Fold each of these.
Amino acid sequence: MNIGVFVCHCGSNIAGTVDTEAVAKAALEYREVVFATDAMYACSEPGQAGIVEAIGTYALDGVVVASCTPRMHEATFRRTLERAGLNRYMFEMANIREHVSWVGKDKAANTRKAAELVHMAVEKLRRNERLQAGEFDIAKRVMVIGGGVAGIQAALDCADGGLEVVLVEREPSIGGKMSKLDKTFPTVDCSSCILGPKMVDVAQHPNITLYALSEVDSVDGFVGNFNVTVRRKAAYVDWDACTGCGECAAKCPSKKTPDRFNEFIGLTTAINIPFPQAIPKKASINANACIKLTKGKCGACAKVCPTGAIRFDQKDELVTEKVGAIIAATGYDLFDFTKYGEYGGGRYPDVITAMQYERLLSASGPTEGHIRRPSDGAEPRDIVFIQCVGSRDKSIGRPYCTGFCCMYTAKQTILTKDHMPDSQSYVFYMDIRSPGKNYDEFTRRAMEEYGAKYIRGRVSAIQPKNGRYLVKGADTLLGRQVEIEADLVVLAVGAEAARGAGELAEKLRISYDPYGFFLEGHPKLKPVETNTAGVYLAGSCQGPKDIPSSVAQGGAAAAKALSLLSKDKLASDPQVSGVKLARCIGCGKCESVCPFGAIEMIEFRGMPKASIIETVCQGCGVCTAACPQGAAQLRHFTDNQILAEVNALCL
Amino acid sequence: MASSLDELKTAIRKALPGLDVVIAWTAGPDALSHAPLFITEEADVARIEWDPRCSQNLAGYLPGLRGKKAGIVAKGCDVRSIVELLQEKLIDREDVVIFGLDCQGAVDARSARAALGSSRGVRDVAIDGASVCFSVNGEPRFFSPGEVLQSKCFGCAGADAGLCDHFAGERGLPPQFGNPPESTLERLEAMDMEERLRFWETQMSRCIRCYACRSACPLCVCQDHCAAQSREPHWVDQTDHPREKLMFQAIHALHTAGRCTECGECERACPMGLPVMTLKRALNRRIKDVFDYQAGIDPNQTPPLFEFREVETNIKEREW
Amino acid sequence: MSVTEGKELRIIGFLCNWCSYAGADTAGVGRFAQPTDLRIVRLPCTGRINPLFIVRAFMNGADGVLVSGCHPRDCHYSEGNFYARRRLETLKALLPVIGVDPGRFEYTWVSASEGQRWRSVVASFTEQVHALGSMPRFMSGTSLDLCLRPAVQPRVF
Amino acid sequence: MVMPTARYIAHDKLMPWLLGLAEGRRVLAPVREGGKTLFLPLREDSRLDLRGLADDSAKAALLPRCEPLLEFHYAKTAGVPSRTTLEVREILPGQETFLFGVRPCDARGFTVFDRVYDAGTRRDIYYCSRRDKTLVAAIACADPAETCFCNRVGGDPGGSDGADLLFTPVEGGFTVEAVTERGGAFLREQALEEADGKAEEAREVREAVRRAMPEGPSLDGAPDEVLRLFDDGAFWESVAAKCLSCGVCSYLCPTCYCFNMTDESNGNDGVRVRTWDNCMSFQFTLEGSGHNPRNGKAQRMRNRIGHKFSYYPKLHDGNLACVGCGRCIANCPASMDVRAIVIQARSRVLDKEEYANE
């Protein structure tokens, strides 16, 4: 084999702490290396051209590039090899940036380490095989998990692009957080007016199947062929029959049911349609509040339902959908501020979250758009807004900035003034984060036109005082303590990962960060992909986002799914297991450990043998490690290839 | 034991017409260890021997006889190997007839020869409670079990007669011999790490790479396709380095981890007297502690390395 | 070229591609400085790791071996790390018997986002191996003077 | 050349004498280690064990278990890395060796090797180099084991074939007699006392052991019988049934000389080694295509017996490739007995003849 080695400087990223020239020189001494050089940017156009040229000049049949992580540019260089007429698997990378130059300080040690990593790559490459990809059929359908604005956008874009879409929503209605908002910044347009039509589009789109009140139960399969089992939770109402007339809710005697949609500041009935614009507009029963379901008596709803849709005996139902791609758009949840003792820990009725305030502002909310204190229903005059509640605070494990609270607080001060011209808003803030189009102008309007008083500092305590609240804090700009008597305190609670996000990530076999947000394939270059092929991310499940970003990412995820599923077949990864029949003794150990059922026992000349179903094999290699004879070998990661790496590093 | 032998012969005579072969023991070239006997005709039944010299575990022959109806005479420890083969579906239960026996202990021919000086003139061996009696040229010579029996006989749990299709002799617990002689594992544990490495270096320098340890192992199902003699994969090289030979012992131990019943065939077969079961014993001990599993007990279990639990209660992972 | 030329020891890491290799990348992206002893072998999954690779590394003279994969339940292949955990736990019983100090081998789980954690794993494991020093090497044959010297060092530098 | 007269060495002088020899050369002698008696380089702390047959044969002295034949290195041409030259360095063994304490059967085993490796124009330089530099000192047996049968394969428990010196146990020590000229030259240089009357005692000892050998039919002259059973699959299946296909028999055998050759390399450097091989192993005849002409253990057993008692004798004037040391019998984990197999083969042929005659 003629091997060429290319050692990348990556500008100064590598060359700054690795002597790339010395590494190339060292590589020349390795077995079967006939050409070695260093290059400024191996991945750049001239860098790749240099590789193509060297392949021709030196008749290379294998290439090692020592540069960044293969997770970044392995695919790039494999294409380079293909352009030069080589098989894409006759390529290895030595990761001398993320694993060497960026983490080691000692240049001599880094250089030695880089040279050894190149040696390891060369020895592995010497044992590489020219693998050929096969093809497999795919399901041209996509599942979108989560029906907030990101999921809605993704679903609509996919459906418009011709894909069948299955949209799964945990709540009884799609709409997500946005459907609870009164107005949106910085335009102060009505949230339901812009979201509502999109929700209706979802309901009416012929390519979209909507499963509301449903959750993903399990996922198996792989890109192009996922099998997702969805748990359709019992609504106790036959939704095919329900017309959404609302008679049931009107007659329901259980009228003190906590109202989830209204953030628990109002009450609703045990059977209800969460809000007037709900999609699907179907009633469902809160089993914990329903008198019939808890005590066995009542059944008022069933008596009045004009279509006889009530089903007290309804059970959860599992349906399995075969899809080619999955878009996770599961959004976020709000930080539970009761962790903060200084804000009353939830004991003060008039210390509320911004989302609760949003419901108070909303014309379809429990107060029909009139701002009223939850404690006594009185109209407040002095309102204190506290920002960064559950954001940028290491002490409670939330060191990140939610990013959109500054904006919605500004919006709420504006709306407050609109609702109650005599009111006065005070905002305690740490920094104003408003780096979006028309955003900073918007916060200035709140201060300058709407008279919101911004105080830079933290609140140290809230104390009840004569039916009002004494808010004590610091003004760090003036360097003094401030005390404000407020009728209402609104906390700008931050975003955190949606409950159950970790479990869903495990089902989808994607990664998540320490806070539970799903991990993108690359922070810059693969912001909507994940490390699992065919699974994409949209909206705040990947990290807190405002509405335009969520919509943009929903569209981006849809574009990824559309491009993936635009082909009739997908190329199968040839890095799968294979069984050498002459060595296999048919003991079946591989079959028993395969996580994918990709191994079947066959009979060959009267002897039992294992056989890999290549389109099902995912290439994990569990079988290879279980096979005592070494008959089952994971291609591209064979025992001999890994042993060669071990021997190159130490012998 | 004489009556057990008669019972056994009767049972085999009766079953033989329905079987292709029955594997038992008979007198061999060495007076201290009996040889395997493959019985296909009734006339052979008379040659069967049964006494403490029936040391060889015959279970290893069964996978090679797959497809035939085979009877096998088995001590309690041998039955555990059969259980393991059944677990791994390497033999078919309906094709195997197990003739269980009431074993009193099995002679370790190597130590017995050392104790006696020679195997010449040995006519009979009997175990009576705490002593082993060899009749040599008509004279009885007594030894303690620790001197002449296999180490596995200490703490023997006896036969699970339930699995045997026939059982000759008295059911019940075998004799208990008290504490076993010090094992290599215990000796090693008293050494520091480098001494342990040097210990194996010395031991393995004697190894002649005959692979009898593997060939005799009833669970080394790969046999002709053993990784030790393969270039693809190339786990060990062919040089005479003790490191390579120890590497093979590690391969054997890890391949039989959770499967090895400590039948002792590997050490019995080793012509160089190497303590090759030590590694397997160490792994078994850990597997018992961590996975609460012992090989060769229940034919319906799965060996522990071929399954898992999502929450492993006995694994204490390190916090970093 | 031998790593022992500096003050380094031979430490080999077997990392799964999806979590820990990416976690090590994350540490790199974050410029989390680490000791330079470790050399990483990239594998698809910890389930691919035959414990014998680790034995082989020690036989060849490695001073430490570190395995890292996805956290339990996070395996890209669902179950690979569950098998790995059992295999590696079993391996832990073998190493000290052949004279490899248990402190020379560790396995752990590091996710793609845990760059900081990866740094601290590398730092503490490297420190732990340094505290044990070099692994004693096997002498070549002792019986009849007929053994080979170990196969050859790669010649560079 | 006239042989020197017989000498005598007392038991208590033996070890110091051997250690003295070890100063200028390697002395291999049967030494107790790990519960076994093995031929190992003699050191001051060695426990010499001359009670009987050692557990391994001494063949490794002439045909090591693993012998490097050559080293190779792929050298890069300076400035032209695409040009690689293969440098090869032959490794010739060169150590003077005194091989002490083999038994007459073992020494006779070397004559089996000599016919193969030192056969006129076909000389194996590695073997011959070792043979030339090794002085073989055999000890006549006094106490044959149950498994000994040299007398049934043309050998002699007091014989000296293949040896340079013959030691014979007598009262208080050993007599030492030169067998070959090299042995004679060596013995002349040794400051050992004259044996005098002890030489006669030695002759009597050897005579006595010849009488003490267990009797049995000769295994000589079986070539045709074994050949006639070549296609008798049922016979070989039955005798091989209990065989485990391990290599204990051939690896301990003083006459088994088969080897394998492999290149072991790492990076640019490698070594070609020759290692013992064994015809009981599946790999022995495994062809590159995957086909194996000796696929089953019965065919392999047929080869082992056939080679020792038929094919080799046919090529080498009737000399068997078995010297009757009995190690294969004593150490077989499945208690196989090569004597019994040859006898069975004979009677099987007789049975067939009788059947044919009827």
Note: Chain A has 19 helices and 34 strands.
Amino acid sequence: METDVLIIGAGPAGLAAALETASRGLAVILIDESSSLGGQLPQQTQLIRPLPSEYGPLRGFELAEKLINQLEDYPINYLLQHRVVGLYADGSVGVTDEENVFPVKAKKMIMATGAAERAVAFPKWTMPGIMTIGAAQTLINRDFVLPGNEAVIIGSSDFAMDVALQLMAVGVNVKGIVEEQPEVQASDNVKIEQVQQSGVPIYLNASIIEARGNGEVAEIDIEHTGTVLTEKVDLVCVDGGRSPILDLFYQLGCSFGYQEKLGGWIPQYNSNFQTDREDAFLAGNAAGITSQGAILLTGMVAGISVCEKLQAISHDEAQQIRGSLFKELEILEDKDIWESRIHHIERYANPKLKDQFIS
Amino acid sequence: METRFETVVIGGGVVGSGIAYHLSERYKGGVLVLDKKYPMTGTSGSTQAWVWVHNKTPSWYAEFNMYSAELYPYLSKKIGDVEYKRTGGLSPFFSEEDREKALKLAEAYREIGIKIKVLSREEVLEKEPSMNPEVVGATYSSIDGNVNPFRLVDMYMRAAKKNGVNYSTYNKVTGIEKQDGKFTVVSDKETYECKNLILAGGTWSRELGEMLGINIPVNQLRGQILVSEPLKPFLNHTISGLRQANNGEVLMGYSMEEKGFDRSTTLDVIQETANMALHYVPSLKKAKIVRAFSGIRAMPEDGFPIIGKVPGVENLYVAATHSGVTLSPLIGTLITELIMDGETSIPIDRYSISRFGVGVKG
Amino acid sequence: MNRLDKSTIICRCEEISYEEIEEVIGNGARTFDDIKRLTRCGMGPCQAKICTSLVAKVIHEETGKPLHEIPLPRMRMPLSPIKLETLATDSTSFSTVKSVLDEVELEDGKVR
Amino acid sequence: MHIKDHPVLGKQLQEPVTIYFKDQPYQAYQQQTVAAALIANDIKKFGVSRKNIQDRGLFCSRGRCCSCYMTVNGEDHVRTCMTRVEEGMEIYPNLEDPEVRRDGNGD
């Protein structure tokens, strides 16, 4: 299989990049291991704002529909339920449909492989009924299944607040949010307010001593201000934060930098969202954990840069569009994340980790 | 930490740690092992770890490997369980022409006391029921087996440390000099002095030798290896190309590529290796592969080990070889004999570095 | 990270605890891969996708090294587990993959 | 418990599907994954770990942690969080290492 552009990951970043490239006449293959487009968006039932100007505030699944519909009149080759296995010596990407593994040779690649949730370890954290907040959200908003009736959430990011509200919306009794740090990690005060008004206590400087249960979680001990609180639960959702998924960048020999605020190790990339491997671009959470609006903008930048490199648009036009996309990104993105991203791009020439396969 | 030692070993992999352990059993002087990272970041940590004798050629080299294989049971008694299993080694073939080659091999080995049987198809399938029924025959040697390389090096280190050997890791050697009968070893963290110096640099032996103007002609030959998820035990032998570890995973791979120090893997070789594994054992088809790693063989220019004293440089010893896992008990014993007794119990002049016409350059 | 109870599992595939990792760090292991080779931590089906960040925290706590100085583990293909038959092609030609007998050369009927 | 009427997404569970866990029939719906369908039927323990035989179930639901490994229609170590239910699916917990011998002489 040959193509101009291979986009890996059909989440918001991949879909945005697909629009920029396919709408300018480039042959695009869009691959995702899930059976549907949109990545995690379809299960985001909360209102997403801010979004780039042309999108306006939408709920996650509405945004997914819009991104998918925009691609309707372009001949994109969708490879759903396909996943990347690795690379061939000539640089083509090894893809599998679970029957065979076959090479896909692309002139340029855009990796929109997203982020993965980090685990939180405490005694017996491996019991059934203990899962990530992303897993709980997937169950209620995509599979329409109640993961439990009485829950405790460990961690207090914006994502954790969304999941707390969504669990309560489907009737789960969220008995508390446990945060190790002295202050709530979420930045959206409206959501924090909503969670507290629903009667959910947020325990700060608190940690989990142990979970207990037979075959599945039944009880959890929370240490808070010197006292031990035991809660009867059948669901524990952990929020260990998220990090970019790096496996494919690593196989490509990309080098990495480290930005705490962007999720830790990040592939090195310049202002074209090009990694230090000439034919590999990136977009979305893979370029640093950020909000949905920013994710879309990074997909557009990567798409525009690829169009420029494949002469689908001129350098000047690309510079002009990128300029305005970066301006909008600065306005829309959380200040700390924006500054970390700029700092990361500035250090493009001196990565912290490189030549990982040369011993 | 002390900076003067009677003996310094550069390189803490299976060969270097093997030497340090065997030396520590008899030697009373201070021993320091230097490694530029932590042991097993090189070949010792990325190997199928066969303890393999048969079809190593010529026969004197097979004999050398056999001596080492025979030391393994005693080694396990001394340093603890290294998951050494003398499973017997099967090298199957699928065409009648190979049978002639196999018979010649068996005959050549019989002369030096290595029993190799050439099995018929039925005998192969009886020994290894999961083998592809299209197999035509196999060479079989009861001495072959395998070991867990991680445990082997770990147990060597623990036993050596218990006998007083010091390890300094993440401490790369950057320069070596010899003046008035002593070696000065300069490394990232420290400068050391010692009487005896042992070069066990594995794939980096050439670079190490150059620090003393000595040619240690070791090249790099990459091998890619597939690892399956742990499966219920079903493979009885070490088969040339794959084996099943104690933990149940099957290791598959027998490839050779000249890629210098590039330890990446490629789907090209991975898929070819998968074809080989399925060709040998079709029932592996549903087994899931969880990892493909690659290791760099430390391959001396002529393929044979470089062991022993360095002519012209007193108290300098070198141990650089391929099949370091198979040979580590023997090499450890031989180097210890050279240092303690000045000579070895079996002749090793074939393996001397002098065969490369080496003298001290400059 | 619950540092009080060192029996806490860090690698859920291979069930390696905090104290097992702490012990090998005490013996000089510094990177994820050092720890993996000595304890099997990270060798399970998930291939360290879950325990990488947890082990990095243990290394940080035991050695004081900041997280940005704790390198990534060596990530390998396949990016997630895959059946051998899916990987295999139907070709029977082998170029780089050899059989051991290939290496045995005969010179005028004798093994060289 | 299935969410028949989602507060934001409404009635999404349309085509029912019957799946079998340890030979017992359970109710699922077309677009659900095996893992989700089992949880809807209060089955959270999908298997046990290898060394300490500890219970395991859904954790990451992204196909990365492999804690949701089960035997589905005769195939071992299937990631049930990434596998959609199909009518008549036979599902068993993951209790031991896969056995290859029986596949060898089967199909």
Note: Chain B has a mean pLDDT of 95.
Amino acid sequence: MGQIRLKFFARYAELVGAEERELSVALPATVADVVRLARDEIPGAAALPERPLAAVNLRHVRLDAPVADGDEVALLPPLAGG
Amino acid sequence: MGQIRLKFFARYAELVGAEERELSVALPATVADVVRLARDEIPGAAALPERPLAAVNLRHVRLDAPVADGDEVALLPPLAGG
Amino acid sequence: MLSKDPISPAALLAEVAAPELGGTCLFLGTVRDGPEDSGITGIEYSAYEAMAMAEVQWILGEARRRWPATRIAVRHRLGLVATEEASIGIAAAAPHRDEAFAACRYVIEQVKQRLPVWKKELRADGSVLWVDPQGRPAVVGPA
Amino acid sequence: MLSKDPISPAALLAEVAAPELGGTCLFLGTVRDGPEDSGITGIEYSAYEAMAMAEVQWILGEARRRWPATRIAVRHRLGLVATEEASIGIAAAAPHRDEAFAACRYVIEQVKQRLPVWKKELRADGSVLWVDPQGRPAVVGPA
């Protein structure tokens, strides 16, 4: 099992009612697996999209990117900087 | 005959030793005719190029543009604005 | 790079100025309140700050590799930004203007695509909307 | 538009600012003193002033026809401009950044091609050169 720190921002943080959650996932796993698990297990997270933008350890990644024990996985609403 | 006010700028004014000269030209005439006459008759103006940039009444023109009595004809060194 | 304080164009320009750099391009993005913006009074910016800082450094690194003689400075506001105030400022100075325009443009395009920053529109009628630049804003507050 | 006073970026930005214009692009051209500039201490700018004023109005008219929602301001220095000071400043504000960049770029390119302005480089060794951007500078003073 791997321990993932899952982060929510902006509208996603409002939907989940939190900015951060710990999640245990069976490894090997991808970001998509983490999203699936989060939507099932975290209250409010079922309202998140199935395929959100995501980052692992501060870098943009695709949903098929692998995750490792200790990773910080962030789910990002549509970007609106500038 | 037409009366032309001929203006010199920057390096051309230094070569001619003046910023302005009056010139009488036989009409019809073009800017090229005015330049030819100036190079022949105005002291120092022989050092000007045969085909300088020119403007008539504040607008860029080609050397085959016509001139009329009372026109202001300016001979412009290579532009270096900005 | 991320700051709650107003963006100073003069500070950005001073940061990139150098005797050998003859062309400087500054871009400012300001919070609009036009006829199509239905009474916006301000925008509340939030960010994934650690990632935004890292992402800007990567973007600046890319720009410096592409235009090596260029100096670039970036500021992005966080928190409440009132209409007509700048939410982002980018200054790029280069030996010649081509590089200055290109580097400034590159940075703003990449920032828009990559920076983990979000905005909530605050409207005169009291409603609050998360902005999705690719889609429609979603009402999340009282309308 | 033509002025012996230093160019104020803040004044140019204020001149074009408007609530509905979310993107602003400022260009500054400054007098360089880089390694290739052989000890320039300043540049003396002169102009055919009446024509330069008319030409800028035509250029601005063209830009406004092409990008109708845009506000543009231009300043060009005359007289002695020291190194690192701006000789030209252009600000363009538009509803979106594409038009702001395009209008600003259009104006500087047209100014460079069309404005009857000349410059004399003043060098640390006392020499003075008229600058021909298309060719070689011609020494006209003591070298």
Note: The radius of gyration of chain C is 16 Å.
Amino acid sequence: MIDVLYFAWVRERIGVPREQVDTTAATVADLVEELKAREPRYEAAFADLRALRVALDQELSDFDASLAGVREVAFFPPMTGG
Amino acid sequence: MIDVLYFAWVRERIGVPREQVDTTAATVADLVEELKAREPRYEAAFADLRALRVALDQELSDFDASLAGVREVAFFPPMTGG
Amino acid sequence: MEIRVQEDRFDPGAELNAFSATVSGAGAVVSFTGVVRDVDGGLVAMEIEHYPGMTTKAIAGIADEAARRWSLADVLVIHRYSRLAPGENIMMVATASRHRADAFAAAEYLMDYLKSRAPFWKKEVTRDGAGWVAARDEDEDALTRW
Amino acid sequence: MEIRVQEDRFDPGAELNAFSATVSGAGAVVSFTGVVRDVDGGLVAMEIEHYPGMTTKAIAGIADEAARRWSLADVLVIHRYSRLAPGENIMMVATASRHRADAFAAAEYLMDYLKSRAPFWKKEVTRDGAGWVAARDEDEDALTRW
């Protein structure tokens, strides 16, 4: 089980801020494919990965990164702080 | 008659902050030569012109500038504001 | 180093004075304050969302890197989240150094990285609707100069 | 644009807040505060002399040039003269713009020019004596980047 978090318009499209996902996905990209296969709202949120960023256990990472040992995955658009 | 002002260590070496000078000097450099001929304290203050700056009527200028129409000449070391 | 991620308002002037008071050996203090601006006159609010588990950690990483690159006596970062009205302060950074060039460079570095690497997202609520603020290419490009 | 050359102390935080309040359309406010620093622990006072007839005019010229080069909502410059104790504020500048890059660049420009082109001279009074602060080559060199 892995905690998956969504922020900004990713959260709005998927409809929840976080959820627990039972997955054996090896990489972030695999997890994205699993989610997209679930429901259209995931398809809509993950339509263009170039518009998304991912953090693993609160560190910025990449879509081809391994999920081994990861407890928390967060998806969000490019940040707009400051 | 022209008002001549001195600041910082130039003022300290010459011993007065300002004085009126009766001069027909054509340029700043001419005025400096006149002053240096007066007394050793002027000689000491104007020994190295590269260490000095001059303003004519409150605008930074050069030692070869003309004094025509100028009412106030100020001599001082490089500025250290901020 | 002080990092505060908070919902509440803050007083930039009071923060600047408190910061300066703790760094009396440093001759140069630079501050940046970001204010909600209403460019077209139709802004109702700015909603700022963040990633609580990551935000402070990400900002601390940015501030650590700034302290590694420049000679800094201290760094302050305050960043708000929640719904802000036009004119409210969003965030501020302050840097103190013996050298003004270091204080300026570190403050600009902090701002560039906070813009694009700290997990905040802004939504503009206007009279005509609401929309997420898109990241600008020039903000990403700004990182390449460091 | 506000330029104040004064003997009296000022409160940087209060000045920053007052400045920000007048530029509500500008999202970015940068400030620089210069403080008398006691590098070697022996500083008794910093005496600042200026050229009253020229100072405000020179600073206004520098601020005008900054406003010509960058998009600025407003500029504030405060510079003190007289005898200051370690820890006292010497001067501050503040700039406001819609764009943080402009606010930063203008503040750095103002500082670089105030250092070398505004008619102030500093004398450090230490326990061992007093001496005029020499202009540094790097301050003159800093002007070449603009």
Note: The mean pLDDT of chain D is 95.
